Amino acid sequence: MRPASQRVEITAYVPQGHDLEIITERGLIEVRGLQGNLKARSADGNISFRGIAGLVDVETGAGMVEGQLDPAPMGSRQRIVTSTGNILLGIVDGLNARLAMASSGVFATEFSVEITPQPGQEPNKSATAVIGKPESDIEVASKRGEIRLLRRLEFRPA
Fold first, then answer.
1. Whole-number Cα distances in Å, 136 to 54, 98, 149
2. CA dist 140 → 3, 105, 107 (Å)
3. Per-residue pLDDT for 158 more than 70?
4. What is the mean pLDDT of residues 55-80?
5. Coil, helix or strand for 149?
6. Backbone φ, ψ for residue 86 (5° rounding)
7. Once rounded to an integer, what is the mean pLDDT over residues 23-37?
8. What is the pLDDT of residue 66?
9. Is pLDDT of 152 > 70?
């Protein structure tokens, strides 16, 4: 057994067009620049992602999720879930997606959101937001954590 002050770090370079699946018990999962689909699961760790060219399907227990979402193919489904952590997403105006959100925490957003109370349930409210055209679906959920949607600019090469 390793001391708590030590950590193991693994860096993987994934060939373009290949999907990535990561499963951990605890610790940070960080994915950048993946040119495929991402599936990540952690029992108790934070998940961070950006620059994902494919679909995103991430879930953690008590950890936080922080990521940037880019437009997905029409008809696709993506999923971003944590049991009790916060979720922070950077989103472009042209996302072209319908977001179905649920939390007992706060919804903080730079986009229009319709919130529906769900008394006696956990999470105790759901919300929907349509960003661009509703061509794909994204589930965003945390039982108790804050869900924050921030507007970001699309990347444009110089």
1. 13, 6, 17
2. 35, 13, 11
3. no
4. 95
5. strand
6. -85, 155
7. 93
8. 97
9. yes
Q: Tokens 């007992």 label which residue?
A: 104
User: How far is the CA of 47 from the CAs of 78, 107, 110, 147, in angstroms?
Assistant: 15, 19, 22, 14
| Chain mean pLDDT for the chain | 92
Q: Would you list the DSSP string of 39-73?
A: EEEEEE--EEEE--SS-EEEEESS--EEEEE----
| Token reading at 111 | 């986009």
Across 74-87, average pLDDT? 97
Stated as kind and residue range, the H or E segment containing 10 is: none
Note the pTM of the prediction, 2 decimals. Answer: 0.91
Give the contacts of 1 (CB within 8 A, at least 6 positions apart).
none
Under 8 Å CB-to-CB from 121, ≥6 apart: which residues? none
Instruction: Read off φ and ψ for residue 113, nearest 5 degrees.
Output: -135, 140
Residue 1 has pLDDT above 90, yes or no: no
| Contact partners, residue 30, CB within 8 Å, separation at least 6 | 47, 48, 49
As a whole number of angstroms, the distance between CA 38 and CA 157 comes to 24
Whether 20 contacts 14, CB under 8 Å: yes
Burial (CB count <10 Å: 0-12, 13-18, 19+), residue 119: exposed
